[in-house]
Amino acid sequence: MVSVTGLFDNYSDAQAAVEELHRAGISHDDISVVASNADGSYDARSSDTADAAGTGAGIGALVGGTGGLLTGLGVMAIPGVGPVVAAGWLAATAAGAAAGALAGGATGGLIGALTDSGVPSEDAHVYAEGVRRGGTLVTARVTEGAEEDTARSILQNSNWVDVGERRAAYADGGWTAFDETAAPFSPEEIEEQRRRYASRIPPVV
Asked: Positions of the region Disordered (predicted)?
């Protein structure tokens, strides 16, 4: 198995990606979501779901539900990122707990979980920083080859962030790497980041 990961500025794009991955035959158990919850928007919709998040059951609520992408996710805190809502195997790995017990912090967990799943370290730092700045990660475990190509195409065509371009944009602002000791972005800072990247042109498909 290999993993394919996409960062999304808009969670509706991430939702579309999750739906397409599932329609392509990728199991809920093999899809994971980590989304910023710095403004507390999803607290009311994430109760009693931590266990489901780790097993993949929480992903079932991501597709076809009236609540949208973030229905049925568990809440956790990641140093340097702040509060997130998360579901699936990557969330459980990041939390350092079995079966999705998302209690407590996840020190160093997100970078470690991403690199352990095969994401290059420099990309993992961009992904973690992207979540810190209000983004959503979608990661799929797939078989190498055709299924991997399909998953990558789905994420890209759902308006994923070009990781190289985003790394350069962050670097232009003085960023060098994700720092788990840094203060999380405030809701106001995240809103500014979302406005900054809202005008990105979707890919031609």
From this structure: 186-205
* pLDDT of 39 above 80: no
User: What's the pLDDT band for 198 if we cut at 50, 70, 90?
Assistant: confident
Cα dihedral 125, 130, 132, 138 sign: negative
Long-range contact set of residues 70-73: C-beta below 8 Å, sequence gap at least 24: 70/11, 70/35, 70/41, 70/42, 70/45, 70/46, 71/45, 72/45, 72/46, 73/33, 73/35, 73/42, 73/45, 73/46, 73/49
- 99 pLDDT exceeds 80? no
- Residue-level pLDDT at 80: 82
CB 173 within 8 A of CB 121: no
How far apart, in whole angstroms, are the C-alpha atoms of residue 135 and residue 130? Answer: 5
Secondary element (H or E) of residue 84: strand 82-87
* Cβ neighbour number for residue 99 with a 10 Å cutoff: 11
What is the distance between the alpha carbons of residues 43 and 150, in angstroms, rounded to a whole number? 33
Q: Are 131 and 8 in contact (CB under 8 A)?
A: no
CA distances from 203 to 15, 139, 154 (A): 17, 20, 12
